[in-house]
Amino acid sequence: MTRPHPIGAPRVLVNFLCAGVRKKFTRTLPFGSDRGSSDALGAALIAPAAIALALVILFLGRSVDGRATVQSAAESAAQAAAQERSPAAAIAAAEQVGAAMLVDATSCSEPSVVVDTSAFGPGGTVAVTVACTVSAAGLELIDPPAQTSTATAFATIDPYRSAGD
Fold it and tell me: Residue 143 falls within a domain, yes or no?
């Protein structure tokens, strides 16, 4: 007696059906006919496209990282400027913090920090604009366009503190 298959059909029927399906969908090649050349041709065609796709993804990642770095640097520089007592000290502090945060040349090259202290004083605001160019080093194969990231952040100066000299 044949053991029933877990789904209820006898094993002989299951083996017969599986053999028929296997024979129908499996092609045996005669001895000596090699299909390896088509695999190599496929790899030769797909490899450059895969490398180009990887480079595009790398550039997009650098672009996002550059924008996030610029935004973070602008916010930190504005907060540092708002803590100072005079416009000159605020400009110096903002430039120092901005330059310290934009040291990674792979995500941000040619950084610039511009500080607006026209409304400096108790209850006023300080605006800091940070800009840099996203680096394309190592991506020469896809020749990406130059992309500049810019961010402006504002910080409010404490209205209850005394003004400096």
Answer: yes
